[in-house]
Automatic annotation (TrEMBL):
Residue ranges of the region described as Disordered: 362-396
Record's protein name: histidine kinase
Gene Ontology molecular-function annotations: kinase activity
Coiled-coil residues: 155-195
Keywords: ATP-binding, Coiled coil, Kinase, Membrane, Nucleotide-binding, Phosphoprotein, Transferase, Transmembrane, Transmembrane helix, Two-component regulatory system
Reactions that this protein is recorded to catalyse: ATP + protein L-histidine = ADP + protein N-phospho-L-histidine
Gly residues bias: start-end ranges: 362-373, 384-396
Domain spans labelled Histidine kinase/HSP90-like ATPase: 287-385
Residues spanning the membrane: 21-39, 112-133
Enzyme Commission designation: 2.7.13.3
Pfam families (UniProt xref): HATPase_c (PF02518), HisKA_3 (PF07730)
């Protein structure tokens, strides 16, 4: 689900969970039907308040909250739905009950407490439906919240395993890339050694022999038709030696990735990631571009470790002074768990050392107001000064 965009607008609003927004809209629509099904102004007002409480509670229980507030929001959602169902049997008050039951297991720890809570909701719902239809068969409706809650537990477990697999894939991809680069560097070094030991030495020997032949020809007063080609051949041999040495140096130089490679990095991320690019690209030193690439790679890997299942946003902003790169996640989703993959503890320090070596700065820490982690990297363009002060977090 990785995407790459170039835009001039600030689109951080994408952090809003569209699923939650859709669920809230559907809850309000069902509430409107319930209000319209009520008879009398007073009853409609009461049902309207219940519907509003259910909609707010439904949105709240799907957001990161302290456990006690999450349980309170779930109780408000389910209680409002039960009351609306009892007051307006022809409405859709059962929708908040089902919605609350589907999220309730996230806020109640597994064990007897969860069984009691889900069981109480199921019994209450079954009793209300029995009273509405006037038949003991209505008690069977209580199986609905129980089954929904049970399926929600299974879904959350599967989602947690999927998110953990994504984190492991991110770690594996980073390790695979490092191994490929190490293997490529070793192969380049091998080729460079072969060129230096064989080609460069052979060309140097050829040049020496041609020079010796030219000296003999000059001593013997050989005609220009012979000495001129010898001079040209000796010159070509000398040029070949210089070119071979330059090629050896180029092969031994490390391959540096840059900002242009961020598109492939984000596009190849196994989880949900988005790249946003603004401004006109400027000129960066190769070392600076490589440091930025490594910083983004480390930040995304950290997000997969500790904010497992969260969407990641990478924003690249160019201006006349330099480059700013922001990497953000939105924290663990409701009911989510970290991947369990632990970092070495040196990721942020290594990131800072790389960026500082090219005159840049790194800031890292929780986002203001909570709800995720933010890493900001700044590097100057070629020929400009360094950025502002740097800060460091403890993640990584």
């Amino acid at each position: 689900m990785s995407t790459v965009r170039r835009s001039g607008d600030d689109v951080w609003w994408r952090s809003v969970d569209r699923g939650n927004l859709t669920g809230g809209t559907a809850m309000i629509a069902c509430g409107a039907v319930t209000v319209l099904a009520a008879t009398g102004l007073i009853l409609r007002l009461v049902v309207g308040v219940l519907v509003l409480c259910a909609a707010v509670g439904n949105l709240a229980i799907r957001r990161p909250l302290p456990p006690r507030w999450g349980r309170f929001a779930a109780a408000v959602t389910i209680g409002s739905g039960l009351a609306a169902t009892a007051l307006v049997p022809g409405g859709l008050g059962s929708v908040p009950v089902i919605g609350g039951a589907s999220v309730l297991p996230r806020w109640v720890p597994a064990g007897p407490a969860r069984i009691v809570c889900v069981g109480a909701v199921s019994v209450a719902f079954g009793v209300i439906i029995m009273a509405v239809v006037g038949s003991p068969a209505g008690l069977l409706a209580g199986l609905g919240p129980w089954a929904i809650a049970d399926r929600a537990v299974e879904h959350d477990e599967l989602q947690a395993e999927r998110d953990r697999a994504v984190a492991l894939l991110a770690e594996l991809e980073a390790s695979r890339q490092a191994q490929q680069e190490a293997a490529a560097a070793e192969e380049r070094n091998r080729i460079a050694r072969e060129m230096h030991d064989v080609l460069a030495h052979s060309l140097a020997g050829l040049s020496m022999h041609l020079q010796a032949i030219r000296a003999i020809a000059r001593r013997e007063n050989a005609p220009a038709s012979l000495t001129d080609p010898l001079d040209r051949a000796a010159g070509l041999a000398r040029d070949g030696v210089q070119e071979a040495r330059a090629a050896v140096g180029a092969l031994r130089a490390p391959h540096l990735r840059g900002v242009d490679d961020l598109k492939a990095l984000v596009g190849g991320f196994p989880g949900e990631a988005e790249l946003l690019v603004t401004g006109r690209p400027g000129r960066l030193d190769p070392e600076a571009g490589h440091a930025v690439y490594r910083a983004v790679q480390e930040a995304m890997t950290n997000a997969a470790r500790y904010a497992t299942g969260s969407a990641i946003e990478v924003r690249v902003a160019w201006d006349e002074r330099g480059l700013r790169v922001d990497v953000r996640d939105h924290g663990l989703p409701v009911g989510g768990r970290p991947s369990g993959v632990k970092g070495s503890g040196t990721g942020l320090r290594s990131m800072g050392e790389r960026i500082e070596a090219v005159g840049g700065t790194v800031g890292s820490g929780p986002q203001p107001g909570g709800g995720g982690w933010h890493t900001e990297v700044r590097v100057p363009l070629s020929g400009t000064g360094a950025g502002g002060p740097d800060g460091a977090g403890v993640r990584g």
